[in-house]
Amino acid sequence: MAPLRRDRAAVLVAGLLLLALGLLGLDWRADTVLDLRPTLSTAAGQDAVATAWFPWVGAAVGLVLIVLGLLWLLAHVRRPGTGAIRLAASDHTGRLEVDARSLARAAAADLAARTPLEDVRGSVATHRGTTVVELRGRLAHDAGAAAATATDDLAAAAATAAAQLAAALPDEAVACRVVLDPPRRTKEPRRDRVRVRPATSTTRPHHPSEQPLRGHRMEPKERTMGLADKAKNAAQDALGKAKEVVGDLTDDKELQAEGKADQAESSVKKVGENIKDTFTK
Amino acid sequence: MIAAPAPTARRSVGTVAVVLALGLVALGVVGVRELLVARGWAAGSSWTLEALRGLDGLTATTGVTVAAGGAVLLGLVLVVIAVLPARATHRSADGVLWFSAGALSALAAAVADRTPGVLAVDARRSGRRRIVLEVVSGARQDPEAVAVAVRQAVDVRLAGLPAPAVRVRVKAVA
């Protein structure tokens, strides 16, 4: 009998016995169903215990109970097992076996590399004769955004992992599941948000959401540097445009080209600034 | 590929079974002790005899009724534990990728947090199938419009996932 079924049956029997005993006790007081004697007499039991054969029978039954109990306990000790799966390609020249746990670990490492998941672990279990490879991971804390924008990617990565495992074990009854748990609770500040507070914050009432409790606050120096760069770019862009216009008016090809080059350079810098902005947000 | 079974919580029937197994061993030890004591191989007196003497003359007192009530309750609990199936801890849309309720609410909160007009998000779960997103919007934003935008963003991004019912509550900054 499967261990789970045996446990269920044993717990059910114990529960029903307790229930019957309890109901008997309640009926003894209520005296509604069974006509029980008002006083309990254990004289017959005491006589039986006092006989010469009782200790021997008690010891024999006791030994059986000890052995049964120990076997039952042993069934609950997790045995790691070999984790080896025999491949159908085995023949008289040799056996072909694959270590399922190594396979699960490799699949877990691959999944961790392709998705914003942390602590990805691979494990193998047997469920009703089917080998179940489980890849279990947590959503990364600051990769919430990435995961949110790429839930399709997550599903695709999970499907790929399942397909790879199926391809590695073509003849076997192997099921794969990718299990996602919430991000780990951490006290580390989040690094994926920027809060900029106005300099004269005393003029406005505070709201809890405005407090820069979590995350990274942009330092004033950092902010002015970014603004200075942007101002310089704008100036270069304007100068370039002016040179081009003057070049057009005076038909000066060299000035025209210089103006265009200035504008191009400023737009390249602008793109760079935008990228920087994107990454600091 | 064979469909994987749903991940489930550890069954409490296993824990109860271990306790019962220990009880069985203890009962066995009492049985063996009877022989040791009766043959004089160990000092002491028979516990079984003492227990029977103690129970002799017992009447249906209030204590007995309370104990019987306790036995009925414990028996019912054991029967329920034995019969109930294991609780599923994760949900899946495709049978391969399984999400815990916490993972889904973290995803929903991350999506809401990136919606324009949202300053802060707090995700709460009510039950395993409901997520309440408490959103703080900017002072100049229309809370209704932000709520609609958040709901739309969550619907779009979490499409195809076993998304639970999501409720959005918006509070504007004063």
TrEMBL record, chain A:
Source species, domain of life: Bacteria
Key word Cytoplasm present: no
Keywords annotated in UniProt: Membrane, Transmembrane, Transmembrane helix
Pfam families: CsbD
Record-annotated membrane-spanning stretches: 53-75
Gene3D superfamilies: YjbJ
Similarity-based family: Belongs to the UPF0337 (CsbD) family.
Protein name: CsbD-like domain-containing protein
UniProt organism field: Nocardioides fonticola
Automatic annotation (TrEMBL), chain B:
Parts of the chain that traverse the membrane: 12-36, 57-84
Keywords: Membrane, Transmembrane, Transmembrane helix
Domain of life where this protein originates: Bacteria
Protein name: Alkaline shock response membrane anchor protein AmaP
